[in-house]
Every structure is written in structure tokens, then in C-alpha cells.
Amino acid sequence: MGVLNVKSNFAPMQKQLTLLFLLFYGSIIHAQEPVAKDTVVRYANIGYDANGNEVSFLSDTPPLQQIAGAPKAFYSYYWEFGDGTYSTEKNPKHTYKKTGSYEAKLWATNNYDTGKPPATRPKKVVINEITKTVDDLATMTDDFMLKRNREPMIDEEMVMIVSYKNTNNYSSSGNIHLFYNEMAFKNDNFLEPEIRLHHGETLIPTDVMVYNKDHNPTNTFLTSIENELVSYSVQPQDSTKKTNLPLSMEEAKQLYRSQKSISFENMQPGEERNLFLTMRTAPEMIKDTSAIISVRGIYVPDNNYGDHTVKDMEMEIVTSHDPNKMSSNGVLMNYRLVRFKTLKYKIKFQNNGDGPARTIRLETDIPDMLDMSTLKLEDQYPACPICPKEPVRYSCLDTTFLKNKAIFTFKNIYLPGTEQKNVQEKDSTKGFVKYSIRFAQDFHKQKTKSRTAIIFDKNEPIITNYATTRFTPGISIGIKAGYNYYPKVENAQSYFLSAVVSPYKPYRFYGQAEFSNSFNASTSTTSMDQIVDDPRNGSIQLQRTITAIEQKSVNWEVPVLLRYNINNYLGIGAGVQTNINVSNTTHNNVTVEYYEGDSDQFLMDSKTDASSERESFTNWRTGILLDFTAGFSRLGPSLGARYVMNNITDFNYWQLYALWRF
User: Given CA atoms 615, 617, 618, 624 in this order, what sign does their dihedral have?
Assistant: First the structure.
């Protein structure tokens, strides 16, 4: 890739040759193999002009590809200057403190754009002399902050900025622990990060980690406060101060499967430092664009003490960089435990106008299964108090709760527009509302969808994506017992005990599998009379042959059904089943009786022959079934009736049973 230096007279020709080469090379690759997705790479180039140690940087970005119907597309910028400092301006100026060679990096994010963010190669900047001095300015409002340059997107990289400050009045050495890849998700969301250290920090192997034990357990705070980056200029992040470091570390390890730990030394009082991590999203990361994922940081400013700061940075999965977005932490929940869960929603917005917004109205759908009375406003930006009942002239947030809608209205505020003159910091044009809500008393296991209409002043509404909540299927184990009735089998008795597996408390359609062990018995008796010659005197006599057959068997049945809950109390189903006799024992008793003459009045003789036959794994049968239940159709006890039509003639039967699902 060509790198544009604005001081070169051959830059336009170089850029054209690079573009021609890329087009030619891309056509060859396309001709050789099919392309499953868009592989066109766009490039943003770095240019700079140095005057001693004062450097003016320039960004050269490719044209934007506007998303149809979205606000005007624009770039947001994130620069690293190679000395531990950064900027979010489009064309920043930076003064280096020391001579040397530095590597400047640029990440340009394409908001409201259909393509991928442009790739950029680092630019080497050489400082040979110091012509201007610069004083360190305190910029951090807290001792520990987590930031990012953009939201995570599948198979894309983002940068996490970790800023820390020594608020002690003495020089100290400590540690920073970063946790990512939450246990709540099956797959990792991030690959191994690239870490850039600029102040002599070192990575600590996690297998040799030790914790300071100088703490007071009675002062441990167990409440966690979640934090979120809104802009680079305003950081409404509240700290969670704790003293029990081993407990905080163990809690983090229970929530996250990946960890990086960094040690720093000799940090002077009031000194501020930054370190940077390039986080590459994993191809198998969660695909739900309404999901909220997080990274946790633990900052230990002094290794001699257990005092530390805990910060959580929440992020939303995106498929395109759209600042107007709604997300939820209820992407995939356990329905058994949902009574103890509080859903959290976040609505983000950005003013893309050419002037400030004075009134911003957010009209949010609230699903029926959520309890409006439990809705609680957690945080908002611009930060302002809740509006009183009477009209006021100061900035405030008005909240209106209807049956299935919550309306948040920022009044008398000043939120700059991205196209407004002299607005360099795009993140200063952003805002958000964060609220929590609990489930209603009676709700079903259904997916929910919420979205928000965002109205800036009197402009047309901007409709966000859907924030969805889903439930894991879960597993419900049931015990089933009952009686099989065979209408066309003589003197049949059949009892069974079954294990039932199905999703936990399903709403409407669901699958169900069973394993039944049936104990069957039947008896049949036949009699045949015939007139035969009496061998003793040549007269005739009646010979009666009585055949008694007794069968006992153990039968395994495996039904698989598709069921449908009509309501909370009635359910129907249909499916197929296969069964086989695991063991089958047949006892045959043949009794021959002889009577005098041709009637059965005088029994002259009788003899009985008995035989038994045992078989295993015989009489394999298949069939289809229809099923009906009444009771508690989703969980708990119910009664049912089932009709099974076997592939063997005259072997259809009814099944009457009781079922309890757990």
C-alpha cells in the first residue's frame, strides 16, 4: 500500500498507481476463486508536516459509501502518536517531548457507511531536535478510565485505551488487570490483543500473580457499578472503590475467561499515563447486534496496599457504525433464573445536524412482558436533573411512561451537531439514556423486540435497530406413568414408566422426546372339540383340546413429538415412535381331555403338556401418535391421553397417563 506524504510532489501519481495496482490485483484474485464476501479494501493514508518537535498530521480518507436512508455519513478519527498520547481530531497537532523515532497510527471509523473501515499503515515520524517545550496538563477526572475508538464489529479491530493516574502524594508502583471474553457467552468475542506500552510497563504472567493481603475485609464493597464511555471529552464513569483485592480478582475470573495483567513502576504524584490494546474480534463472536458485552479493568495504584478501582466498559456489537442504536443485556437468558434478573437497555444517539439540538425526544417501545412500574432511569447524557411538573428554563430530562412506551425528552439542552462549525470532536455530539426494568409477574417464554424513535428538535424521527431479548431453551425433565389399553388384545395388561425431555417451560411449539419402559402381560385360551374313535372298544368319544397361552414382555418405546401449548392448561401433540420387545416370554399349556360318547358329560381322561419360549429384542415396530394433555401444560402436573397407530394390524392402543414436568 502506498503511503501519502503531503510534502511529496508525486503524491497524486503515486496514489493513482496504487489504485490501478489494487484494481488489477483484485481482478486476478476474483478470476481465480469465488469471493464469499466483499473483500475490497479501502485505505486511509497518513501525512504530516514537522517543524522541529511540533508535528501537524493530516488524514487522507477514501470517499464514503452512504447507507440509504441514514443520516449523512462521516468519519471519526483516532490517532496514536507513538509516545503514549492520542487524539480524536481529524488533523491533529502534536508536540513530542523527546527526540527519536516514533510510529504514528490512525484508525478512521466510517459512520453511516456501507463498507468496512479503511485500513491504514503506520507512519514513521523522526524528531531530531526540540524546538518547543510543552507542559503536562492534567486531563483525567478519575484515577482510572477505559475508552475505545469504536464499537466492536465482527472480524474487525478496535482499540481500547487504558488511562491511569497516580493520585497519591508520593511515587508508587502498581498493577493493572484487564479481563475480557465473558463466561456468559459460549465463544470468545476477542482474540489475543496487541498491547502497546510506552512508560516501562511490563506484562505479568497470570500464573505467577500474587495479591497484596493488606486489606480490611470488613470494608469490602460488594456492589458493582457499571460504566460506559460516551465521549473522549466527557467521561461519565463512576469508580467502584474497593479494598479486598483477592475478592475482586476472583469475582472477575468467575465472569471472564481471558486476562492480561500489567505492572508499572515509579509513577510520580499526579502523573497520567496511557496504554493501548488493539482488540481483534473473533469470527465466532456473538452475532446479535443488540448484545452488550463488557471488559473489566482493576487498577491497583500501590502494591503495598489492597485499595483498588474497578471499572466495567460496556460495548454493543454492530454490523455497521451507526451512532443511533439500542442495545440490551438480555440477549440470551436462563428462564429458570429470570425472576432474579434486571434487564438493562441503552439508547445511544448522535446529532448529525449543522447546528445544536435543543430538544431530543426518545420514544421507546416497552414489551408487554416487562413491568413498567419497575422502570428505573440509570444514567443519561447530557447529564441533567429530572424535570419537575412545572415548566422550567434550565436543562432537564422529562420522563413519560405510558402503557407500552417510555418517552425520554431532553429539554433546554445544547448538543452540538457533527456538521456544526468549529465542532472538531465528533463524540461531543453524542448522548445516551440508560434504564433498567424487570419482568412482570406473569409472562411467557417469548422473544421480545424494542426499538426507539429519536427526534431531534422538529426533524423527522430516526428509528433505531431492534434490541432483542431471548431465552435459552433450557432442559425440563419429566416423569410419566400410566396404563396402555389394547382394544384388540385379549386380557391385556400394560403399565409403563417414562422419562420425558423437553425445553423448559416452552411457550407454544416445542419438541419432546421420551423413553418408556412398559411391562406387558396377556393371556388367551382357545378350545377345539372333535369326535374320535375310542381305541379301547371301537366306540366314539369327544376329544377336547384346550390351549392356554400366557405372554409377558418388557417393551422399550422411544416417541418423538412436536407439541403445541394451546394455553397454560391444554396442549396437543403429534409424532412418531419406535418400540421393541427387550424380552418376551411365552408359556404354552396344552390340555387334552377325553369324554365318553360324543358329549362332555363324563370326563374319562386328561393330560397336559407345558412348554416355554424366551426371546430378546424382537417385534420391532413403528407408529405414529396423537397426544392431548390437560393440567399445567408448561410445567408441573398434567393428565394425558395418547393414541398410537402401529404398523402392525390390530395392535393400535390408547395410552392414559399422568405427567409431571420439572
Answer: positive
